[in-house]
Amino acid sequence: MIFIKKFIKKYKIELFIGIILALILSKFLTSNLFYIAIVPSESMKDTLMVGDKLLVSKNIEPLKVGGIYTFYHENKLLIKRLIAVGGDHVKIDNNNVFVNGNKLDEPYVSSLMTKEIHVDLIVPEDKYYFLGDNRNNSNDARFWKNLFIDKDDIDGKAMKLIDWHNWKSLS
């Protein structure tokens, strides 16, 4: 204990500067490079559960179909999976999602849609089409008035599921 008091007394300016630099670096990193998002709903169940914490990278390039992204839609921050990009033809029929005529392999979707939904559209250039993994309980592009998301509204790419005992990659 005496050693700690002497150390603090001798190096108090250095400690103070170190703490200030650590706080500045932390603020810079969390506002410019990454942040932590908390899953607010069951729309991505079973991939993500309500309350899960995600490490989200602000570096979204390149956008990758199948990736999980955070974005703003009607002033709300949402977490969904990217299904299609500008120019893609999306068709949803009989619980299957087709992009450009190819049926998507979606092992992350755990249950069939209970509502019969038919979608047939072309994603406009520079727009993106997102769906939740929990198709029976996801407010996503199938139901939105504005079906597509602008690139400027995409805020980040979910990188890791933060579980202090076991980090899970989402890429």
From TrEMBL:
Catalytic activity from the UniProt record: Cleavage of hydrophobic, N-terminal signal or leader sequences from secreted and periplasmic proteins
Keywords: Hydrolase, Membrane, Protease, Transmembrane, Transmembrane helix
Subcellular location: Cell membrane; Membrane
GO molecular function term, any single one: serine-type endopeptidase activity
Domain of life: Bacteria
SUPFAM superfamilies linked: LexA/Signal peptidase
GO biological process, one term: signal peptide processing
GO CC list: plasma membrane
Transmembrane segments: 15-38
Gene3D superfamilies: Umud Fragment, subunit A
Similarity remark: Belongs to the peptidase S26 family.
Name this polypeptide is given: Signal peptidase I
Source species: Clostridium chromiireducens
Gene: lepB
